[in-house]
Model the fold of this input.
Amino acid sequence: MSFSNPSALWLLALLVPFILLAIISRRLRNRRLADFFSSHARSRMVVRGGQEIDVFKTLLLTLSMGFLILALAGPEWGERYEPLEVRGTEMVFLLDTSRSMAAADLQPSRLESARQLIITAADTLATDYVSLIHFAGRAVVQCPLTVDYEAFKLLVQASDISPPEEQGTNLAAALDLAIQVLDAERKAQRVMVLITDGEDQEGGWQERVPLLKERGITVFSVGVGALEGAPIPLRSENGEVTDWKRDQQGRMVRTRLDEEPLKQLARESGGRYFRLTDPGDMEHFVTVLKTFERRVLQRKVRRVRVPRFQYPLGVGIILLFLEMVLTTRRIRWTKD
Done:
């Protein structure tokens, strides 16, 4: 026999002080009776069966409490088999790691806000396969599909701006790689979570929309940044801002959120677009992602212990009822 809530068994220790209090209470009552009645009078007085009934009631109440505590502990014995449906998705997070994601119009930066969004979303998942792709001038798989969320979050936390030789924003390459990562043979719902400021410098992403529809891939796009734009900081090796990115004429470059491609991708694939500007937007996105309908990944049969709490519960209630029935007292004098 096992218990689903074994910590409740510690409550059985309360029965010891309860029994001691019952004994003390009975002795005090007998002492008070002795103050008012002589031993001869008490021997002729009948209190519904005499003092034995008090002991019996105490025993009933103690056993009732014991069985109720036992029921609370959730006894289990025997086994049964029951069907189990595992529902989930294949979810690929596409994280923009181009230089523009270093802009600080979201504090502390666009990239840090995006990382926090992915980690928060991963904390709500249970049976979904997740993958991480970095993309700038080219796309790279940082984490293949996995259900090891702790390892996945470590890789997300390690995400950083791509090196100078990989700069640019090639959204089409990111979509192509994500389509390859998603398993077309598996019957899972396939989802892309695209997190970027939307500044696509290569073009060609529109040609991927028909394939997304054909594969049944839903795109949730998240726009990171402000519409009015922000300068792009250039940092030294120790993280200090040394300058701002400038064009060939020396003017400071401002990076702005471009929502149109993100909205179109989400609309055409049956997903939704979100703009990440404050914590409320993050919570809304995570809620939508968590409640997104999952398909059955696989059907299993699992072996479970059979709960038997109803037996000690029933015994405890019966004993408690018997104790209550015996609580009414009638005092009368016996006749010689």
About this structure: The mean pLDDT is 80. The CA atoms of residues 205 and 296 lie 30 Å apart. The first strand starts at residue 2 and ends at 3. The domain at 84-298 is CATH 3.40.50.410 (Rossmann fold).
